[in-house]
# Entry
Amino acid sequence: MRMAVCLTCLSMMAGCVERETVNEESDRPDALPPASIAECRRAKGPIKIDGIADEESWKDAQEISSFDVHWQRRKPKTATKARLLYDDDNLYFTAEMEDADLYADIKGHNGMPWLNDVFELFFKPADNKLTYYEFQVNAANAQLELLFPSRGAGGWQRFAPLTKLGMESAVVLRGTLNNWEDKDEGWTVEGRIPWTAFKASGGRPKPGTKWKFNLCRYDYSVVFDRPELSCTAPLTVSDFHRYEDYGELTFVK
# Structure
């Protein structure tokens, strides 16, 4: 959804991306394996949303570090490590991202944070329903939260003004924002999404429930030829909304 072609995508989907052809020469024995299975474990205590993610529960959460450029069968230029937790009231997330050029100038709720350095989460709770969800937080802590009744119903332009799902987030920067002349280290995001946000698809899952999911990232940098996209789902094309390729997230006690 970026650069010249992104203007045509805006009316369709937030976080949609340019489609790129997989390089057949990269179809080799050491190609990246699918990274499609993860656990969301139950938090053992309260989680404070401060962008630090230093509670004991986070130490027990599964680290999800398989952010790759799957459709090109390569590793990303910058690494990402994410974790997920849940309790009776919320789904929690945190991600630690390498980033040498912190960039985010989009502010406010349900704008276009994908035009900045951004962390994204996609969830499709039910196989028998077309409903799915997208959440984004950029490096300035601007949020986007969307409930899509279906991919064919319209995208950001239609649903952004209508959606308020209650996500909370905090960001910690390891560097200076929007100064392309210095070198930064990265940023961390931490957040929670109330189970009421998923009411349209059944609400809070029971232990053992499996959802389709994808964790994604945009990294903009003055040293890149184009924004660097990476994600956890083994996408066959660079479309973050392609839930046919999403991974499997199991909620466990």
User: Anything to note?
Assistant: The chain has three helices and eleven strands. Helices lie at 3-9, 56-60, 156-159. The first helix runs from residue 3 to 9. The CA atoms of residues 171 and 189 lie 5 Å apart.
